[in-house]
Design goal:
Elements lengths: L1 H8 L9 H8 L3 H4 L1 H16 L9 H21 L3 H14 L3 H11 L5 H29 L2 H22 L11 H14 L1 H28 L8 H6 L5 H15 L3 H14 L1 H6 L4 H26 L7 H30 L1 H31 L6
Helix pairs in contact: 1-7, 1-8, 4-6, 4-17, 5-6, 5-9, 7-8, 7-17, 8-9, 8-13, 8-16, 10-17, 11-16, 11-17, 11-18, 13-16, 14-16, 14-18, 17-18
Length: about 375
């Protein structure tokens, strides 16, 4: 399941080191090229909202493998796109169907014992995060040696193979609710109202992923121009710096099992803002850029792991819908961060990007402080829920 999560999530990130190359092929600037990341994440957000809740109502193995066949088709169309509009439509479809990864994570949580759920989620998320890292590096290498189109053709073949393997490897599951599809969707706002943990953790996830995407959406523009002028293969290698985030997944899953999730969350949110200091200096220094990426990735991925370890301890009958609520907010904020970064890079350059990313991190930390204040207020007012 960890390997499958890594292969599927990679589809969302192949474009990041290739944006400059793709922009040249379609004769568009950074702002329009950056829309590829935005529409992919917008498609993923739509899939989270409309497809992932079906995991509570349908047999999950069949649902996951069926969605993966759609991913393979969308990737093939994207790799063959003759015009920018078709490219963007195919990218949205790739995002829509890549939500299979968010069907795997709650399935893993459902199969795990309560005492080890944080560790199990952390293990699957380690595979997912390694897929994010490898996707950028692989895309940069293949894009430099062949073309950006070859990256997506190879990814389409990988999804076909994965659909076949998962059909044989995953256990069958039983639906946890008998709600109709409309009632399933209507239950989402009520779930958010009923679960304060879900509300706070969704806020942290939104701040973390927005801060994360502000950097990674614009990284290729920075590194492909003076003073760096790196080719796509070298730009892709910067994804390996994010191995720190993958290490955070396995470590922080165990931290959550021991009950230390709140202080650990505060540290991770703090790193989101702090990391943009070295990233700002990284506009002219590779060393500072690497330091900043390490801090940013640890903060963003650590926050995400701690969030998921907590939300999957909520109602076991609603794990897919809990995933939908959390991840819809998560990716909606990520898409907004990508769009803002792509537009602001052209207007204000690297300092503005760093200010935007640090601001996203500061918002998450403010929420964490607010939760602490609210909990203290609730203890002093027994009738109030935190």
């Amino acid at each position: 399941m960890a390997v499958a999560a890594g292969l599927v999530v990679a589809n969302l990130y192949y474009a990041q080191p290739l944006l400059a190359q793709m922009g040249r092929d379609f004769h568009v600037g950074p702002g329009r090229a950056g829309l590829l990341v935005t529409v992919t994440q917008a498609g993923f957000t739509a899939g989270l909202l409309f497809l992932v809740p079906l995991g509570d109502r349908l047999e999950r193995r069949g649902l996951i493998t069926g969605v993966l066949w759609g991913t393979a088709l969308a990737l093939a169309v994207l790799g063959s796109a003759p015009t920018l509009p078709i490219l963007l439509l195919a990218a949205a479809a790739v995002g829509l169907t890549s939500v299979a990864v968010q069907m795997l994570v709650p399935l893993a949580a459902a199969l795990a014992a309560e005492r080890e759920r944080g560790r199990v989620v952390g293990t699957v998320m380690s595979g997912l995060l390694l897929g994010v890292l490898a996707s950028r590096t692989l895309a940069g290498l293949v894009g430099g040696a062949l073309s950006w189109r070859a990256v997506y053709w190879l990814a389409a073949g990988a999804m076909v193979g994965l659909a076949v393997v998962l059909r044989r490897a995953l256990p069958r599951s039983r639906p946890t609710v008998a709600l109709s599809y409309p009632r399933l969707l209507r239950s989402l706002p009520g779930l958010l109202r009923a679960e304060p943990v879900l509300r706070w953790r969704t806020l942290y996830g939104m701040a973390g992923f927005a801060a994360f995407n502000v950097f990674w959406t614009t990284m290729a523009f920075l590194l492909s121009r003076a003073p760096y002028r790196f080719p796509p293969a070298v730009i892709g290698l910067f994804g390996l710096v994010g191995v720190v985030g993958a290490l955070a997944a396995s470590v922080l899953g165990r931290v959550a099992d021991r009950g230390w999730q709140r202080p650990a969350t505060g540290v991770c949110l703090l790193l989101l803002g702090v990391g943009y200091g070295p990233i700002l200096l990284g506009g002219h220094s590779v060393v500072w850029l690497v330091v900043g990426i390490s801090l940013l990735d640890f903060g963003a991925q650590g926050t995400h792991i701690l969030n998921q370890s907590q939300i999957y301890r909520l109602d076991p009958r609603a794990r897919s819908r809990v995933t939908t609520v959390y991840m819809t907010g998560y990716f909606a904020a990520g898409a907004a961060g990508s769009a803002a970064a792509a537009l602001l890079y052209s207007a204000g350059g690297w300092p503005v990007i760093c200010a935007l990313g640090a601001g996203c991190g500061a918002l998450g930390l403010a929420g964490w402080l607010g939760e602490g204040w609210w909990r203290r207020l609730s203890r002093s007012s027994p009738g109030r829920r935190p």
